[in-house]
Each structure stands twice: as structure tokens, then as C-alpha cells.
Amino acid sequence: MHTGAELIDELDARATRFKTACGPQANMVWRRWGAGRPVVLLHGGAGSWMHWVRNIEPLARTRTVWVPDMPGFGDSDLPREGLDADSIAPMVLDGLHALLKGAHFDLVGFSFGSLVAALIAAAAPPGLDRLVLVGGSGNGLLKGPPQLKSLRGVTDPQQRAEVLRFNLNAMMLHHPESIDALALAVQERSALREKVRGRTQVMTDMMLRVAPRWRCAAYGVWGREDFAYRDNFERLVEVVAGLGLRETVFMEDAGHWLQYERSEAFNALLLHFLESV
Predict the structure, then answer these.
(1) Cystine design at 48: which of 74, 99, 200, 266 (Cβ 3.0–4.6 Å)?
(2) pTM
(3) SS3 (DSSP) at 21
(4) How far apart are CA 7 and CA 2, in angstroms?
């Protein structure tokens, strides 16, 4: 049986890598799998391309799947201090222009990445046909993350796993049994490499403000047990109704990282969104 790290390495080995500029002497790393109509996946905060580890291969059967590490995350450089969604979005969009060369594409954003995707959609780039929000932020309801534990100074492997498990359970996954070896490996590899500090725009209503500028079809899915909204779910439903989405799904039995926790249901739903006319 493969370990979580081995599964990540095997998927990574099947990717083709590209780099685009995201500032003076700074590069953004992209990975590409599959063939077909392009779909672009943007990860969440403290994340990387690995937030989509259970979704890439199913999508790549029929699509060209592009997944960047956004500037300041994962393998990508931090071009400058003080980055947030509004300053990252133009860098991602410039990279899309360079790599897709005018081809039509769909854009999917998770959590912090959903706000970056929303800002890109608000710029109405030619060729963007669909926007999909996954655990969308920037709706004015998020008050801040739960209290998490630090890995700093924790060197014992078992203790490190316990910290990672605590943090995943507090913020990302609803069921403790969802925290398997792969989830732990994704969390450890991604969170420790985040270089962007002080991201606050996810706690504003920025997405609500930019939604009227979208010119593409937009869809959304939220986990019914998302830590950020489960105690204020009725208000979430009301606020999301103001985004003008063509279709909205609140996935039962799923936490914040729903594309991992309910990957089969999510993959089917995402394909439904992407194939909608």
C-alpha cells in the first residue's frame, strides 16, 4: 500500500510543469495533466496544488487540468510582501493568458482561491466560460480561523501527526476518519511552505461586491458542515442567494475541504457544472 507521500509524488511525476512570471525575478509554478478543454483549479489558503489531489485524475480523463501554486504558496515564489486575493488575481490571470493563449477555459476556486477566482472573473477575461466556487469565501460571514496548533519546534513524527490531525479536524474536515495518511501529507507539505502572511480579504464581503461584474456562468458548492458556516447556515444560504449563481449545492456530511472529504460526490458534481450549457 502506498503512503500519502508516495501517492502525491506519483501524481506529481505525471504532471508537466510550467513557469510564468509573477514579479521581478519571481516565478509561479503550474502543473498540467490530461487533454481536452482547459479547466483551472485554484487552491485554498495555506495550500498548494495538492488541495486537488483527489480531483485531478478524474478531471484529466476528459480535460486539460491546469493547477498552479499561487504566488507565495507551494513551489511558487513570493514576489513581494503584503499579498492578498486582489494582488494575486492579476498575477494568476497573466499566467493564464501566457499559458492558454486565448483558449476558452473554466475556472474553479477553493476557499481563498475562490476569492481569487471571483476577482479574475470580475475582470471578464475573454474565454472564461464558467466559474465554480468551492467553499467560497469573501461573503462577509467568516470571522476568522479556529485556534490551530503550531508545528514550530515539533520534531517527533508522532507529535507532528497529532498537530496536523488536530488542525485538519478543526478547520478542514468534518469526520475524524477522513484524516488519513494522504490528508496528513498534503497538510504537512502545503502549510509549511505558505509564505503569504496577513491575508484578510476572505473575511470581507469582497465576493459579494464583485459578483455583479461576472460575465460567465457561475456555480457554487459549500459543505454543510463547514467550520465557518455550520452554526450560521441559514445566513449562508441567504447570502449565497445574492451571488446570482446558476446552481448552488450545499453538500451534506462534508466539511470545508469537501473536494477531498466527499471526493466522489464532488467530482461528479463538478463535471455536471462544467458540462452545463
Answers:
(1) 74
(2) 0.98
(3) strand
(4) 6
Residue keyed to cell 501554486: 69
How does DSSP assign 123-145, residue by residue? T--TTEEEEEEES---SS----P
- Residue 65 β-bridge partners: 33, 39
Strand partners, 222: 250
- Asked if 188 and 218 touch (Cβ cutoff 8 Å), the reply is no
